[in-house]
Amino acid sequence: MRAKKPITKLLWSSLLLLLLPSAALAQDAGLDTGNTSWILTSTALVLFMTLPGLSLFYAGLVRTKNVLSVLMQCFAIAVVISILWLLVGYSIAFGPAESAFWGGLGKALFNGVVVDSLSGDIPETVFASFQMTFAIITPALIVGAFVERLKFSAMLLFSVLWTLVVYFPVAHWVWGGGWLMERGLIDFAGGTVVHVTAGVGALVVALVIGPRKGFPGGNLLPHNMTMSFTGAAMLWVGWFGFNAGSALAANGSAGMAMFVTHISAATGALTWMAIEWFKFGKPSGLGAITGMVAGLATITPASGSVGPAGALVVGLCGGLVCYWATTTMKQKLKIDDSLDVFPVHGVAVWWAPSSPASWSQPTSVSSVVMDWPTA
Amino acid sequence: MKLITAIVKPFKSDAVREALSELGVSGMTLTEVKGFGRQKGHTELYRGAEYVIDFLPKAKLEIAVADELTEQVIEAICKAANTGQIGDGKIFVSNLEQTIRIRTGESGNDAL
C-alpha cells in the first residue's frame, strides 16, 4: 500500500501539470497573480509613506504655526503629481521612445494602457501605480528643505517643474532604459532616482531661497516629537513596500530586500543613539528616528544586492555618515536645509558605491561617473 | 481678601490642590505657563546639536482667599510644592479689592 502512494501522487500531479498551463492561458497569458497582489500591496505601502508618514514626520519637526502648512504641502504634492503622472509623467519615465534621455510622449494620458496590458508579469496599471507613488514621495521629500517660508503657489509651481524636469527624466535614465541603465547602474529601489535627486534638489532650493528668519538660532525647534515618531514609524513600515516591492515580484529577492531593509533601519537608529549617548550622555528621540531614516535611505539602492550581514554594515555606515553630515557638514555649509533632507537622503546614498553591493556592480551615480573613461 | 498667585512645578499642582482643599479653600484657577527664575533654562538635544531652552513649563495657581486664611494657605503651598530642588517656584500675594459671584450677585468674603 505504502509503495503505491507516491506513484498515485505522481500521476495526479502530472495530470494537474497538463491541465494548468491551458487553464492559465485561458485566464490571462503571462500574468502572475502572486506578483500582482504583492505589488498592489506595495503601492499602498509606498503611498502610505507620504500620506501620512512623511507628512507627520515633517509636521512634528516644524513650529506649531506651520504644522498645517507642511501637511497641506505634502498632500497637495500627492494630488498634483498624480495628475501629472497621468498626463505625461508615466510616458516620460517609462514611455516607448528609443531615447537615452526620455521616454517620449507615446504613453501620454496612459495611451494604450488597458486592462489587459502587462508589464513583465504584472498588469501595467499596477506597475504604473506603483511607480506613481515613488514620483509622489520624491518632491514631497524636498518639502523638508523649504518648510516654514515658501508661499503655497510657489511651492506647487516648483514641485511640478522639478518633477517634470528632474524626476521623470532621471527615472527614465535609471529604470526606463536610459543612459544610466545602459551603463549598468543598479538602483534597486530608488537610491539615485528618489534620494539623490531629492537630496540635491533640497540643497539647491534651500540655497536659492535663503534661510528662515532667525537661522541659525535656537528658536526654530521641533514642536511635537510624538507626531514625528508616529510619522517615522509609518515610514519604516512603508519602506517595506518601497524596497521589497521594487523586486516587482513576490519572491526570494523581495524577501531578502525586506529583511535587509529592516536590519539597516535598526542599525542606523542604534548607531545614531550610540553616538549621542557617547557624546551628550543621553540618546535623543529625534536622533533615533533620524538614524532610522538614514539607515533606510542608505540601504535603498543596495537592498536587492546585499545580504543580512551587509545590511549591518550599510546601516552602521549610513548612521555614521548621516550623523556627520547633519552636524559637522551642516554647520560648515550654513545652508538652512531646514529638516536635513540633504544630509539624511542625499549624502548616504552617494556613499553607497563603496557598499558591498558595488563590489560587483555600481549602485550609485558617482561610481558610474567615476568609471566614465574606462567603462 | 488676598489674591495668591503660586508658580509651582507642574507635577506638584495636584498636591497643592489637595493641601488647600483640606484648609477649606473652595476654588482656584490653574494655568499652564512657561517661565524661568534662578533655575534658568535647560538644554535640549536635536539631531546631534544642543539648544538652550530658556522657558520651562510651570503651573500657575490663582487662589482668592479671606485675609485670615492667607498665612495658612501660603504655608500649605510651600509645604506641598517643595522638593528642595532649584525651580520649585514662587508665591506672589496681592490685595484683592472685590469678589463677586456672578450667579447670585454675592460679594466680598461671601463670594469666595
Report on the architecture of this protein.
The complex is a heterodimer of chains A (375) and B (112). Chain A is 68% helix and 1% strand. Chain A has 375 residues and is mostly helical. In chain A, helix 3 crosses helix 4 (124-146) and helix 9 (252-280) packs across helix 11. Chain A has a two-stranded antiparallel ribbon. Chain B has a single domain (2-111), classed as Alpha-Beta Plaits (2-Layer Sandwich). Chain B has 2 helices and 6 strands; from the N terminus they run βαββββαβ. Chain B has helices at 13-23, 70-80, and strands at 2-8, 29-35, 42-46, 49-53, 56-65, 89-95. In chain B, helix 1 packs antiparallel against helix 2. The A-B interface holds A 218, 221-222, 275-276, 279-280, 282, 284, 286-287, 290, 323, 326-327, 340 and B 44-53.
The end-to-end span of chain B amounts to: 9 Å
The main pleated sheet of chain A reads as: 2 strands, antiparallel
Q: Give the oligomeric state.
A: heterodimer
Give me the count of strands of chain A: 2
Order of helices and strands of chain B: EHEEEEHE
Structural class of chain B: alpha+beta
Tally of separate domains of chain B: 1
- Basic shape of chain A: globular
Strand order across the biggest sheet of chain B? Answer: 2-5-1-6
- Most extensive interface: A-B, 16 and 10 residues
Please compute the radius of gyration of chain A using only Cα atoms. 22 Å
What spatial order of strands do you see in the largest sheet of chain A?
Answer: 1-2
Q: What helical percentage do the residues of chain B reach?
A: 10-25%
Q: Just name the CATH architecture of chain B.
A: 2-Layer Sandwich
CATH homologous superfamily designation of chain A: Ammonium transporter AmtB like domains
Strand residue percentage of chain B: 35-45%
User: Per CATH, which architecture of chain A?
Assistant: Orthogonal Bundle
**Under CATH, the topology of chain A is which?**
Ammonium transporter fold
